[in-house]
């Protein structure tokens, strides 16, 4: 016989519900009958779509986390965020230089960083956010690209920054600049791009497009990865 499931009380979008212990915030919303259309994506902690604000019972601190990864606690108060409406300038990557002048022009706010480290503490990916911002300020684009590599663009850092910097959009630009201008070119990649453009893999791509989820998963998990 199954052990009895313990129920926890949580406030979701202003209403009180009971949800099973062990639920993530996302599961709690759905258990309570909410249909999540925005602020939900891969459900595995990779896409960054489900940034959520919450407060634990008896605690004054507002905290942020991913709804698909954060497990509810009894008495938690939770608000879903559909998306983070952060500043995102439009630019043509081919017209930029891979140095600090690009950030001076497109993201002047980055120079307001006061090195408080709040962004690093807010990051659900344990990224050294302040360090990549400082690398950008020093003009070390390669370092910023490397440190921010695992960023999932959830926006939680930007929501906490006292200097109102949009860290992840800066980081995305750093990685784009690195990839376009600074990274060592891969002859294998160049060759493969030409092959794709010449239609060498058209049949395989069509076959993949017609496959079901189960077959695709099997191929994905059995794939061989070449590391050189
Ligand atoms: S939260 Fe903002 S001001 Fe503080 S270290 Fe991060 S980027 Fe700088
Ligand atoms: S750096 Fe910011 S946007 Fe990227 S994962 Fe961390 S908190 Fe989210």
Considering the chains and any ligands shown, give keywords for the structure.
5-stranded mixed β-sheet; 228 residues; alpha+beta; binds iron/sulfur cluster; 10 helices; flat; single chain; 2 domains; Fumarate Reductase Iron-sulfur Protein, Chain B, domain 2; Ubiquitin-like (UB roll)
In the CATH hierarchy, the third-tier topology of the largest domain is known as: Fumarate Reductase Iron-sulfur Protein, Chain B, domain 2
- If you compute it from the alpha carbons, what radius of gyration comes out, rounded to the nearest whole angstrom? 22 Å
Helix content: 25-40%
Number of domains: 2
**SSE run:** EEHEEEHHHHHHHHH
Separation, N- and C-terminal Cα atoms: 52 Å
Query: Based on DSSP secondary structure assignment, what is the total number of beta strands?
Result: 5
Sequence of strands across the biggest β-sheet: 2-1-5-3-4
- In the CATH classification, which architecture of the largest domain applies? Orthogonal Bundle
Largest sheet: 5 strands, mixed
Based on secondary structure, the structural category is alpha+beta
CATH class of the largest domain: Mainly Alpha
Low-confidence stretches: none
Bound molecules: iron/sulfur cluster
H/I helix tally: 10
């Amino acid at each position: 016989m199954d052990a009895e499931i313990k129920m926890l009380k949580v406030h979701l979008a202003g209403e009180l519900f009971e949800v099973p212990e062990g639920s993530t915030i996302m599961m709690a919303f759905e258990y309570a009958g909410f249909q999540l259309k925005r602020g939900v994506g891969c459900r595995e902690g990779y896409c960054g779509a489900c940034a959520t604000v919450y407060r634990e019972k008896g605690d004054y601190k507002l905290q942020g986390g991913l709804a698909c990864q954060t497990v509810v606690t009894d008495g938690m108060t939770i608000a879903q965020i559909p998306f983070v409406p952060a500043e995102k300038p439009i630019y043509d990557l081919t017209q930029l230089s891979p140095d600090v002048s690009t950030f001076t022009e497109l993201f002047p706010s980055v120079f307001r960083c006061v090195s408080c480290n709040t962004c690093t503490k807010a990051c659900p990916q344990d990224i050294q956010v302040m360090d990549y911002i400082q690398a950008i300020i020093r003009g070390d684009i390669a370092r910023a690209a490397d440190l921010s590599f695992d960023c999932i663009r959830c926006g939680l850092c930007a929501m906490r920054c006292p200097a109102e910097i949009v860290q992840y959009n800066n980081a995305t630009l750093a990685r784009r600049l690195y990839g376009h201008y600074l990274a060592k070119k891969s002859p294998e990649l160049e060759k493969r791009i030409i092959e794709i453009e010449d239609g060498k893999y058209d049949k395989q791509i069509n076959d993949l497009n017609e496959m079901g989820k189960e077959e695709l998963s099997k191929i994905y998990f059995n794939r061989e990865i070449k590391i050189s």
